[in-house]
Sequence to fold (444 residues):
Amino acid sequence: MNCLLFMNHMQDQDQQQCSKDDISCESEQPTVSVKFDEEAYNNYEHAEITSREDFLIHKELDEIDAIRKESAEEALEMLEKLLIQHPNSPRALNSLIRTYRVLFNQLSTENKRIGRIEYLDKMLATVIRFVHLDRSTVPVPLWTQVIDYGMANSVAMGERSSTLKILEQVVAKLDGLEAEDREYYIQSFIDELLYNGEYERCKETIIENSIPDTLPNVNFRFLMGVLIRLEDKLKGQPFPTWDDAMMDQIMPQNQQETDELFEYTEDLAKELRKLEKIDVLNTIYDLMVDLSLYPSRYQRVHHKMKDLQPQPIWTLEETGYEEKLKELEDNWETLRDEALELIRLTPDHNVSYGIDAVANVKENWKHYYIHGLDQESFPDRVCHITPKLCDLLKNFPPITMCPLGSIKISYIAPDTHIGAHTSKLNFRLRNSTLMQTSFKFFFA
Fold:
């Protein structure tokens, strides 16, 4: 159905909005009535990033995008004129951001310094102007595209205050975004508050975004511990406050959280080193030591395994898991029957294939994971078929808490050739139990 959109332009408002980018804003634009072609809009190739208002000028926007590939200077002139009449056009502002970046990239090395002022500073100012738009007028794909581009550039330029300004607007306008995007922007905002030394706001934001009576994610919990210790330092305390309940809460609950925390602290460390905030970085490392995740501030290995020796084959007694291994052997017939049923009932999309070495036919080497490989541990769809196997292993920490450990049934078809290979990891033991001549069960 066609409808009418009425575009009202007020000269004073135009002057205020577009002068921020040094654009001349002398224009007299009367109120106009434009017939909107609904069918053309729905069939437009860039409809996903084009608002209904922008569609009324989509020919101009498309022309500018094409011209920018040949002449960024000409594209800039066209954008300045277009933004006089449409200062709140999301796509025009996005195009201006990209054009400033292209113009900077085209400069010679000796002109980069002045180019930063002439182009990059204006680019960030335009990003901040963009995030102040009414969120409902900007298509979600364009909104996230510009935000991510602006954040990446502000971080690369070392303009963390601009990154914070961008995210302040973003976290106030999260409606309509997917849960993953919302979590990413909230976490990014919290991290930027840390980098900018706004510790109290950082704590408040963590609390505001935590669900009452629910354990927050491991990043939130860990960062709260860091912030409490930073507060102790600011108060002049020579030693950090020790709270057993707090340490228990911060402690990762499983291997997935442990891996996430290692990755998160590495990300924090990289940025804190750039900002030369070594005291904050050392506070993070010391907390990781107190959580027994690092041996020391200067030994930050992710997978330190006590008593692990460099020998290729271990006897049953040397493993220290003799009782559990014998229990598995005692139940091998039940485990075999469950494994056969799992292979029979598992749909193809839940099957993995051997990747450490190349079999002559990929489908001849299949894996059926019960735990590990970044998949749900002991999922109901598997444990419903293999109840004994899950019951024997799901509460056995040496397996479930082993870094990058896994439990799986492997099927190797007859006449399959698999080249000699070894694991890329040297901090875990692998136990293989032959269940039937055509497949085997093992955990590592």
